[in-house]
Each structure stands twice: as C-alpha cells, then as structure tokens.
Amino acid sequence: MATARKTVELFYDVISPYSWMAFEVLCRYRPHWNINLQLKPFFLGGVMQASDNKPPAFVRFKAIYLPKDVERLGAYFQVPVSMPANLIDVMFNKGSLKAQRFLTAVDMENPEQTEKVSRELWRRVWSKGQDITEPESFKQAGEAAGLSDSEIDEALAKMTTQPVKDRLKSHTERAIKLYAFGAPYIVAHVNGKEEVVFGSDRFPILARILGEEWFGPVPSNSKL
Ligand SMILES: N[C@@H](CCC(=O)N[C@@H](CS)C(=O)NCC(=O)O)C(=O)O
User: Fold this and answer.
1) pLDDT, mean over the chain
2) How many angstroms is it from 166 CA to the middle of ligand 1?
3) Which residue CA neighbors atom 12 of ligand 1 most closely?
4) Which UniProt key words apply to this protein (predicted)?
5) Which CA distances in Å does 163 have to 38, 113, 128, 144, 197?
6) Which of 161, 144, 64, 43 is nearest to 109 (CA)?
7) Is 148 a catalytic residue?
8) Model confidence over 127-181: pLDDT tens digits?
9) How far does residue 83's CA lie from ligand 1's centre (Å)?
10) 53 Cβ closer than 6 Å to some ligand 1 atom
C-alpha cells in the first residue's frame, strides 16, 4: 500500500555550506521517500541574531576546524564544495542578504526554478569562490540555472521590493518560531506534528522520524 506523502520543509541560506549538503540529499531522496519537499530560503543572519548564536566561522577554534570538515563533507556527500579563499570577506563583510532576496524573488515568480537557482548560488560561492552580492552575479547564476533573460530581469527588479523582503522575513520568522538557531533547519510533518532537525548530519534520524530508510548520501547507489 502506498504511504501518504509527507511534507518536509528545508530552511536554508546559500551562505551555509552545510545547507548545501542537506539540500542535495533531500533533493536526491525526494522520490525515494516520496516527500513533498518545500524549499524555504531564509536569512541566517536573522536567525543567528534572534537565537543569540554565531556562525561557526565566527568562533575561533571552529573556524580552524571548518575547512577540514567542509572538505570531508563534500567528499562524503558528493557535493563539489570548496572553501572560498576570502572566507572572512564572504561571511563577515558581504553576507547573503542580497542573494537570499534574489532567491526569494525567483521563488515568488518562478518557484519551479528555486532549486536550480539555489544550486547555482551555492556553486558560485562554495565551489568556484565567486561573488553572490552583485546584480551581474545573480544574472550569471540565473543563466546557469536556465532562467530566461526576462525571468532574470524580473527577479532583479523585484528583489528589493517590500513583498520580497516580507516573504524572506516571514520564512525567517517561521523558523525562529520553531526555535531555529542555524542552518540547515529541517521541519518534518508527520502525523499532524512538526519535528525539527538541525544539520546535514542527522539524516538517519530524519529517516526514522519519517518512517523511511537511510541509504547513505547518494540513494541511487543503493539497492533501492
Ligand atoms: N553539525 C551540523 C553543523 C551545521 C552548521 O554548523 N551550520 C551552521 C551554518 S553553515 C550553523 O548555523 N551553525 C550554528 C550552530 O552550529 O550552532 C552539520 O553537520 O550540518
């Protein structure tokens, strides 16, 4: 008997490499677990502020551990991640607000493109060490994701508007209501309840919550 489709919300920010891992794994498992995966771009800076937390790169010893951890994760999850040479500039100075607004504008106008545009933004900053703050960068990410020129222009025009800011805020506030303190923040809807899971390293636990099986980071390599 087919099981009912369960909803899984993924709250993420493209400044977070751990979110990239979780995103790829959930996209891969979507057909196997028969989940309704809802991508929810939020603003990690707002979550950090509300929860009184700090990104790992802002904690002296975690910042030392981070490059090795990210390299290992990329190999394990088979995601082409690589530390940006200018990490401090990327995280401390440039941030992700504009990228998340661009992504939100895409999500509002062309939700079927959210997945590809998210991936291209991650690829820029966390694979190629490229900018994700300038209009030209968003244009290139949009092109790489297969958006038309008019779709890109529309997202660029809308990313600074109030409805886009409100939507990003509302995703961020929803995660904060669920006591988010970082990213990725995953919300599984099971039997009328919301179960939250933090991190890309909790997939066996998420599988258990969903009543599904975990076959490792690349389920197509399994006997599914
Ligand atoms: N153990 C988690 C760590 C995820 C993580 O460190 N995420 C960062 C953003 S890139 C964060 O929000 N950290 C907050 C915290 O660790 O308290 C994983 O492997 O995914």
Assistant:
1) 96
2) 25
3) 182
4) Transferase
5) 19, 19, 31, 26, 29
6) 161
7) no
8) 999 999 999 999 999 999 999 999 999 999 999 999 999 999 999 999 999 999 9
9) 15
10) yes
Assess whether pLDDT exceeds 90 at residue 42.
Answer: yes
Does domain 6-221 sit in CATH 3.40.30.10? yes
Please give the Cα distance from 165 to 105 (Å, whole number): 9
Pairing of strands 185-190, 193-198: antiparallel
Nearest atom within ligand 1 for CA of residue 200:
20
Q: Where are the domains of the chain?
A: 6-221
Cβ contact 164:154 at 8 Å: no
Chain length of the chain: 224
**In the prediction, which pLDDT does 224 show?**
52
Could you write out the three-class secondary structure of the chain?
A: CCCCCEEEEEEECCCCHHHHHHHHHHHHHHHHHCEEEEEEECCHHHHHHHHCCCCHHHCHHHHHHHHHHHHHHHHHHCCCCCCCCCHHHHHHHHCCHHHHHHHHHHHHHCHHHHHHHHHHHHHHHHCCCCCCCCHHHHHHHHHHHCCCHHHHHHHHHHCCCHHHHHHHHHHHHHHHHCCCCCCCEEEEEECCEEEEEECCCCHHHHHHHHCCCCCCCCHHHCCC
Reported ipTM = 0.99
- Each residue's pLDDT tens digit, 144-157: 999 999 999 999 99
Which whole number is the average pLDDT over 21-31? 97
